[in-house]
Amino acid sequence: xxNNIEDDTVDKKQLEVLKKAKKDLESHLGKVDYHRxxxxxxxxxxxxxxxxxxxxxxxxKRLEKYGTNxxxxxxxxxxxxxxxxxxDDLLVKILLVAAVxxxxxxxxxxxxxxxxxxxxxxxxxxxxxxxxIIGIAQDSNAESAIEALMDMQALECNVLRDGxxxxxxxxxxxxxxxxxxxxxxxxxxxxRVAEMxxxxxxxEEASLxxxxxxxxxQHEIIQSTSNLLQDRKNMLFSSTIVTYGKAVGIVxxxxxxxxxxxxxxxxxxxxxxxxxxxxxxxxxxxGETLSIMIGAICFLVWAMNYSNxxxxxxxxxxxxxxxxxxxxxxxxxxxxxxxxxxxxxxxLALGTRTMxxxxxxxxxxxxxxxxxxxxxxxxxKTGTLTKNEMSSVKFFYSGEKFDDFVDIDVEDTxxxxxxxxxxxxxxxxxxxxxxxxxxxVSTVNNHADIKxxxxxxxxxxxxxxxxxxxxxxxxxxxxxxxxxxDKNPTPFSDSLNIEKLGTLEFDSKRKMMATVVxxxxxxxxxxxxxxxxxxxxxxxxxxxxxxxxxxxxxxxKHKEILKKHYNEIASQGLRCIGIAAIxxxxxxxxxxxxxxxxxxxxxDMYDTYESGGTFLGGAAIKDPLREQVxxxxxxxxxxxxxVIMITGDNKNTAEAIAREAGILVEGQTSEGNCYxxxxxxxxxxxxxxxxxKGDKGKVFARVEPRHKRELVKLLTKQGEVCAMxxxxxxxxxxxxxxxxxxxMGITGTEVxxxxxxxxxxxxxxxxxxxxxxxxxxxxxxxxxxxxxLISSNIGEVASIFMTATLGIPEGFTSVQLLWINLVxxxxxxxxxxxxxxxxxxxxxxxxxxxESLLSNWVLFRYMVIGxxxxxxxxxxxxxxxxxxxxxxxxxxxxxxQLRNWSExxxxxxxxxxxxxxxxxxxxxxxxxxxxxxxxxxxxxxxVMLEMFNxxxxxxxxxxxxxxxxxxxxxxxxxxxxxxxxxVLIIYIPFFADIxxxxxxxxxxxxxxxxxxxxxxxxxxxxxxxxxxxxxxELQKRLKQD
Length: 1041
Fold this sequence. Notes:
ten-stranded mixed beta sheet
């Protein structure tokens, strides 16, 4: 119930934010749908005109009123606030309190321990400071998405004020300004097109709306009731690029009121609601549980020794209280895995290096393992699943009669003019003239060009025209032996001896483009070459040229049959372009240099000029699917990961691409699986949730940023762990909202990259699959070293708890435990991160995000192991005092004497001798100063136990026989290094004095191994039971299936 209330609260807050934003916008500009208003109305609304624009004085007033045309940046978090956040953790607070108390005790204690008394608090503080620095470094890019959005805005623009056109900084634009934009310009604000300065105007909106091709704009009123940005054909949006044409527009919205400004608001809101990664949630939960347990055990140990506070050895109740309090602190230090944050950070960092080698750059470390439990990938289509490059993959014409349809497949090589045309030799020769005519019209009636640069073929001009240019070269190569494409990518085009006399530019009404030429036809000097929407071209044509050269009349019935066939091609997600020619030039047969401006400026005559032509055929163009996508999506399915396509493109194209990619499979109909943003928005909450349930792929087309983010939120509410891929500005809010945002590195905008958690440097969907595998492997290894560290810490706690319970002198100091937890344990724990992944890791379903880091069975196993570790450490301590002289001549005591050592001042005739004849002024110091050797043995036993435990942690349930230590050579090296480090603090006097250790003999090491080695046998026995348990559960699942 609490979760629902929390979600409702979040939704209400969002609603309030949106209402306020809407109210502010309406108060500034009034509630106006600019795309549905005539230019005259808008000029009146803003009190401006197209001849003179605003006056400078009026512009200044509006600048003061509306503010600058810039995106507002969220106030950055101060360094002090970031530091405070790093200490807002229960485990950290416990350590901090322990350090402060240790420092106070060191100051007030009258025992002359010197600088050694301050080592413990100093080391603890050093750990906390190091972890804080790491945390702050990881969080350094928190506001970068907003800054990237600000960078996207245009810097300068051409503005009309006081009747004069001037270049000025776009941040000073205000509503009502008159702005001119032309090819190559970045739109400086949201503009209403007021006047076309060219026949057509095309805008690249892919980064904002997801449209895969440039959008044709107009100045007429839009009658549609749709409020989608894609449907506002008379509006230019801030940050979009003019790819063709020139126009004058009226500034309607600036700054945060623009379309890109609304996206920024979404990004800011998403960053506030950003979900913690599964790892962080689990570590937080683990930390809280551990903290409560530590607190309870520490208090219990301190309280249960209440009766010993007044023992004579302490010199008073207060001193006794402090003594046992220090034991409680040592227990806290032992229980807290201080090295865990550093080891996790190191493991994730190593994982990021591996992933970078596989073309995935991780921006936030926890994201490495988040992919491992990803259940749904919400993928953009354009530039992610597809190449975001237009390519001609088919051309078509009529062979021996009008309904003898010939469809020729063309190899998809994008802008590389070299590629296979799948045509038989017979057709190639029989239909040569028609094929060359198709190629000639495609390349001549065209503004684009292909260049070879930096090892790649690149387009210059509109993507659709570039695709036709490439197609013409591939057809031309059927009849010519061209080479040297790196020097001249368009040899066929250059070989043509055709003169262009004029162009009837493309516009959204005619949906076609035509070029007047001479030299195309041998019989006629003037010809009009045409291309455009196939249906429009067919409707305008009077005849059809067949492959055999015959020209036949086109009746209405013939036209319908032709259009039906080409619509079937279009339904495959292809964009069909019709190609035709008017061989005698038609109404333009008399055109020449003197009259061409007069003839071509008569726009009302274009319909007449373009009628009566001969239909030649057409080309099918698509934004091709990346080759690696289908197998990658299949791997996702095998791994239990659902892929959902979310795109701004049209529904039919999106569905066709989804079927080709394998997102939609056989049996999945469009109904219930494909929705437009508007259709999905009309559904109620229950229906939306029902649509998103299940494990089948889905397609959402014609969506806006708010739709994307809502989809991610709904999926997250259902318990899905969402990865969102994308490359455009429009993806930023959802990238930020998702558990992990994956941006494209090559085609991706800076906004998408900065809002993401991971960047794919090769823009390859297949890289995501590798990242998932790496994420799963890292999580598995992370569990291995957490098992290792926790089992070690449980052993330390058990040792101290047993020591306090038995009443014997404490075997470890806090400094020794800190050293083991940080230095000795660190290398093996890190090396466990190099464990190779299981071979079937991508055949398993995603992990449950709510699954605990350690299962109850694993906790039980390591509780057993921990108890043995504690017993072994205490046992060797007792063994030194009570059972064996170790050949060093020290005095043996009874177990009863050792347990009641605090009563030593009352013993008579007690004159102990330490190792090698060491004597004591105060006999009772035999249990304090004289315990150095026993403590060293206990410490060494703990180290060896933890090294053996590292081998045990290679596999959760696999025997060391199945997974021998040498499968991870790094672990062997790390264990060797840890033992070497431990040897240093034993045999080097400087370190021995700091850590309170003594030299060990060969016999000492044999005894140490005898106490520590059995831990391997115990864990092997427990693993046998674990494998039996797993097999029983597997058989149950198989029976259920």
